[in-house]
Each structure stands twice: as C-alpha cells, then as structure tokens.
Specification:
241 residues; alpha/beta; Rossmann fold; 7 helices; 33% helix; 24% strand
C-alpha cells in the first residue's frame, strides 16, 4: 500500500507549522525528510502517525497501519535488561517465545547478542542507540519513524549506527520515514529525499537518490551531485519565519 499526505496543513496554538505538504511514501522505501531545527519535522512525524490532527488536507493509507519509533534519545527502561527493553512493546502483540526469538534475531544482527542480559547502565551510548533501533524493528510495524535517531553520537558511532540500521532494514524491509537536519545522513540512507523550508515548513525540493547504497559514502564521491543539490537547496531556501 502506498502512503500519502495531500495538501496537509497543521498548526500549534494558531501558529502555522506545516503548510500545504504533499508527499508520497512508497512501501519498503526509506524517505529522509531534511529540514532545519525547529521547522516542524517532528510535527510531520506526529501527523503521519495520527498523533497530531491536521487543520486541512488528507492522510491516505495510514489509518490502521502499525507504527514504531526510534528517537534521538534511546528512552530505555533502566530496570530492564537489554533484551527485555527491546521486547517491552511486544507484550500482547506476540507470544512470549515468539517475541524472544524475534528480539534475539534483531539483537544478533545489531551486534548486541552478548549484551542481551545487561542493564542500560552497563551499555555505551552507541549500544543504547543500537538497542533503540532493535526495539523499533522488533515491533512488527508497517511504518518505522525515525526522529533524529543518529544525532546524539560522534561521527564514527553515527556511521556504525547507520550501517546497523540498514542491516536491520534489510532483515525485514518496511516503509521508513526519517527526519534529520544532516545532509550527509540523508544522502547515505535515503531512497528519496525531501527538503523542507523553515517554519512554517513547505516542501522545497524532493528527489530520488539513484546511487546504490553499497557505493555511497560520506563526503564527495559518487553521491556528490546529490549532496551538491541539497546544499544548494538548503542555502537558498526561503525564510518563512
């Protein structure tokens, strides 16, 4: 099923946040939404998930879909071990043994099998963020929403996290919508890139990244043309504040 926002507008306290947003999201694709801090990217995710009502426009294909989230902060429960943190959202969705097998599969793919019984306090920052991704993938959702999920780490850890994310995604492809303000992150991950203006957010550019993922790298290279396009877009975006 395709997912679509059609001419969506949304506001908080009478202040416009999203203006005339029309976007489509193909099944099992990764769409990265790029925009400046505070422009309304998180609001866009909340609209997609149905957590924020729209003032006008339509959400098509999302009703009845299951969502999972990964955030900038891991948001782990400190009294549960890593495995139980990942399985927490599966209570009621899957049987106990099926949930354990599913979590263990994703933890193995993320390189966390040896840390399954550790509490969050015994995990590094990068391990906590990997566990957050495992938790999001473990829940059998149709759509996965990432809200700046690779931002609170150093560059080396960010690269490792993005590679872990792609490995998990290949294990079980689903429709991913990721918001960020990082151009390199957008080019590294995306099938499709959407650029937003400052608040109120409008779509000012969107395109497909045609370079195979195994040929992508951060910095100039085979993705240089796409990166240059985004830099031009960001530097010339209208100021709607």
């Amino acid at each position: 099923m395709d997912y679509e926002l059609r001419s969506v507008c949304a506001a908080y306290g009478g202040e416009p946040v999203l203006r005339d947003i029309s976007l489509g999201f193909a099944p099992k694709s990764i769409t990265v939404v790029l925009g400046p801090s505070g422009c309304g990217k998180s609001t866009l995710l909340n609209v997609i998930a149905g957590l924020k009502a729209v003032d006008s426009g339509r959400r098509l294909g999302f009703d009845g879909a299951r969502f999972s989230y990964a955030f900038q902060e891991p948001r782990l429960l400190p009294w549960l071990c890593a495995r139980d943190n990942a399985a927490f959202a599966l209570s009621g969705a899957l049987g106990r043994e099926e949930a354990r097998l599913r979590v263990d599969r994703f933890m193995e793919a993320a390189g966390l099998a040896g840390a399954a019984d550790r509490l969050p306090s015994a995990l590094s920052g990068g391990m906590k963020q990997r566990l957050s991704l495992v938790r999001a993938f473990s829940f059998p959702s149709e759509l996965l929403l990432l809200d700046e999920a690779f931002q609170a780490v150093d560059l080396r850890t960010k690269l490792e996290l993005m590679d872990v994310f792609l490995k998990l995604w290949r294990e079980e492809e689903r429709t991913v919508i990721c918001v960020t303000h990082d151009i390199d992150e957008a080019i590294y991950l995306a099938d499709n890139v959407v650029a937003l203006s400052d608040r109120p957010a409008e779509v000012i550019d969107q395109f497909t990244v045609d370079v195979p993922r195994d040929e992508r790298s951060l910095g100039a290279g085979v993705t240089a043309e796409a990166e240059a396009r985004l830099y031009r877009t960001v530097l010339s975006r209208p100021d709607n504040a």
